[in-house]
Every structure is written in structure tokens, then in C-alpha cells.
Amino acid sequence: MSKGDAQGCLKKSGGLQERDASANASSSPVIAAFKVFQQELDTKHDKHERLVKISRDITIESKRTIFLLHRVTSVTDVESILKESDVKLDLVRRKIAQIAEELKGEDIYQFHRAFTAGIQEYVEAVSFQHYIRHRTLISLEEINAMLVFTEAQSTDAKEPAEEDAPPPTVTAVSAPPFQVIPSDYLLGVADLTGELMRMCIGSVGNGDIDTPFQLSQFLRQVHDGFSYIGNSGPYEVSKKLHTLRQSLAKVEDACYALRVAAAPRSPSTCWPTCSPAATP
Amino acid sequence: MSVTEMFADIQGFLSADQDIREDIRKVVQQLEQAAREILTLLQSVHQPTGFKEIPTKCAKAREMFCTVRTHMADLKTKFPAEQYYRFQEHWRFVLQRLAFLATFVGYLECEALVTREEAAKIIGIEVVREEGFHLGVEDYLAGVLIMASELSRLAVNSVTAGDYSRPLRISNFINELDSGFRLLNLKNDPLRKRYDGLKYDVKKIEEVVYDLSIRGLSKEPDNAGDK
Q1: Residue B176 to residue A23, Cβ atoms within 8 A
Q2: Per-residue pLDDT tens for A94-143?
Q3: Residue B112 phi/psi, 5° resolution?
């Protein structure tokens, strides 16, 4: 939302510039120098805005993929949902190719803030899909391997050819690849845990008994990984660690409830189990 | 690869990153020290006695920039050259200070705006990103804005010191800068916030000029000038 405000301001200052168009008629060296700065700044801001736009599209499309993937708990045909998510993620990857194109010859970190949100969301979606398919955590290398693009990413003629391609999308290199940086990967994985928690609660509701236990074990592994990194990582990671703890606790509680409910009530112990008579 | 191994990999990356940052911080501290020394030296131009010594102070400051250039050369070796923006936050502040000092010295010497190219040369860095450690346009402009507020102080103090013509020259200069900045389409960023402060500097100088003209002090032709 705040990005939208920034855009508004940009336009406002655009108006300011016209007002002063008369003032710079007297071209001094200072004014001449500032005209150069104006161009440089405008170019930079335009690129930034374009990246923000692409990033927003990536976020939206990734969120939709995640929603789609959540349906696996309620349907029998998991494979068709995974296929559908592949198509969606390919679309997202094509957007990421646009980012890579914009960043050609630039310092990635200069514009990192513009697209970090989208990339995190993509990592979340792709790792969620990977978990559903393989029950493992996707590695940074695997993610980056999927982000090597063919030349044709901008021409839509390529579209049909890519859609029936297998999941690890396209192969031939020539267009600039995109590299997810470790901190974006970490933040995406941290968000993944939230989705897994939701999936766990969802499968409990659907009477699926095994998935919650699998999930809680996996979440614990991820949690241990994050605890290992602790606050030596970027600031946002330590913030998300807190949410991760909460998600993990919810999943563990759900597993506890399942176990307790599944166990047959012993007839010998009467209703208040903690009565002094029951404990010898 | 297990989850634990994956996290160990990332941890390895993070600690390497921390090490680089640690190295950078050390050099940046030295740079800050050097910048403070130059600033202290230049602060004496605000003293009534300092006005006559401006040329010698500037020459001294120019010498002191040698230390800055040495540290800068050192800083460049601490990280991969193409990752300037990854670590930029560490030196952004001191770089803006140095840009200020460079433009301030330049103004005191010849009462004109030091170009970005000159400023970069004084600090010992490049202008374009492709050539390595560079003086980004935002950092340069931030430095210029700090100089503007320093000049508004100088205008006040030069009146105190009995120099009535300098504020008029500063006023012209600042007005020119102001119309320069008006050309820029600034986003809602730190530079914009700094620029918003420029109008107070303009106002302050205008007040000084107003006082001078209303009391007829500005009419005295260059008698009280410093040169």
C-alpha cells in the first residue's frame, strides 16, 4: 500500500517541475548539472516502479497458487491440482524472467527492495508445492535452477511449448537467470511454515490422521533450522521466527489432540483422572 | 540434502556476510574519524577570525582528504566490487558527509558548486557504478543539501564578522541550487526529506539579506569583503 502512496508523490512532484520550467530558462552550469541528475534519477525511479509492479503481480499470482494448493486436503485427485499449480508457477516464473531482464547489467541489491516481497511469496508458493509433492524442503539451489530462462520469455509465441513442459521448466540458457538471495529464501521458507500450519489444521478437519503428524515432524525440523540461524540472519528472520513458533505450537497441539482422541478411554479410570485415588 | 544441512549451508553464507560487514565497519569508522577531523577544521570558518584564513583552511582540508582517499582505497578491497549496493548502508552516511565536505571546501575556495565528478575525485572514488565504488547521485545531492544548511549558517556568521557582501553571494548561490533541486522528481525517500529542509535554509538567508538591505548595509560595495 505504501508503494502506491509513493507513486502518488511522484506525480505530485512532476507537477512541481512544470511550474519551474520558466525558472531554468536561464541555463547556468548548476541548472545544466541538475538536468543530468533529473534524468538519472528518473531512469532509476522508473526502473524501480516497473520492478515493484512486476513484484506485485508475482505476489498475487503466487498467493493464488497457494490457495489452489490448499485444496489438496479436500480433494482426492492431488495430481491434477499439482499440474494446475505448475502452470500457474510457470506464469510466475515468466514474470521473474522480466525482473531478470530489468536487472541485466545492474547491481541486484540496488533494486532488491523493489522485488523482495514478490520473490519471497514465490519461494513460499514453490516450496509449498514442492512439499506437497515430495514431502521435503526445497533447497535454494533447486529454486535457482528453475529460474534459468530461455531467450523467448518476452515473446508470447513460446507459451504453448512451455505449458506442457515438465515442472523444472525450461533449459537452454541465454536470457539472464535470476538468483534468489539466501535471505529471501529464508523469509519465504518462514512463510511456508504458516501455510503448512493451515494445511495441518485443514487436514485434521478432513479426518486425515497421518498428515498432521508428518507435518509436525517437518515443521519441527524447519523450526530447528531457524533456531540454529537465530538472529544472526536478517532482522526480518528473527521476527518471523516468533510466528513460526506459534504455528508449530498450534500443529503440536493438534497432534496432541489427535493422539488423545484416538486412544481408547480406559474403563478403570473414572471421570476426574487426576483424583488422588487414581495416582498411587 | 536434509533440512539441517540446508540450514547449515545458509548459516555459512550468513556468517561470511557478517565477516565482510565487520571488516567494512572497521574501515568506515576510520573514514568517519577522518571526516570529523576535516569538519572540525572547517568549522573555524564560522569564527570572526576565521574569515581571513579561509584559503589556508581550505588548503589544509585538501591535504586531509589524502587520508580519506587512503581509507577509501582500503574500503574498496573489503567487498566484491559489483556488490556495492549490498553493503551500501554501512558507508552511505559517511559518504554523504564526505560529499558535503568536498562541496563545502570547493564552495569556500571559488564560490561555485563542485560538480559530482570533482567531488568524487576529491573523495577518491568513481562517478559511474560500472567503474566501481562510486558517488551515487543521491549521495552527492544529499551532501550538497548539507552544504546548503552550512552556508545558511555561514551567511549569519559572516554578518556578525562584519562581512556584508558574502550573504548576498550565498543567497544567489542557494537560490540557484533551489531551482536546480526543483527540477528533480523526487520520490518519497530520504533525499526528498532532506530537500524539504532546504526551504528553511533559503528562508534564513533571505532574512539575513532582508536585514542587510533594510539597514542599508548591503549597499556598501565590497569594502568589507574578505578578499
Answers
A1: no
A2: 999 999 999 988 888 999 999 999 999 999 999 999 999 999 999 999 99
A3: -140, 165
Contact A70, A60 (CB under 8 A): no
Q: Tell me: do B32 and B130 sit in the same domain.
A: yes
Q: Which residues of B touch A9 (CB under 8 A)?
A: 187-188, 192
Question: In terms of residue numbers, what domain contains B189?
Answer: 137-227
pLDDT tens-place string over residues B198-223? 999 999 999 999 999 998 887 655 44
Interface membership of A31 toward B (CB under 8 Å): yes
| CATH number of the A36-179 domain | 1.20.58.190
Q: What is the DSSP letter of A265?
A: P
Give A-chain residues touching B83 at CB under 8 angstroms: 107, 109
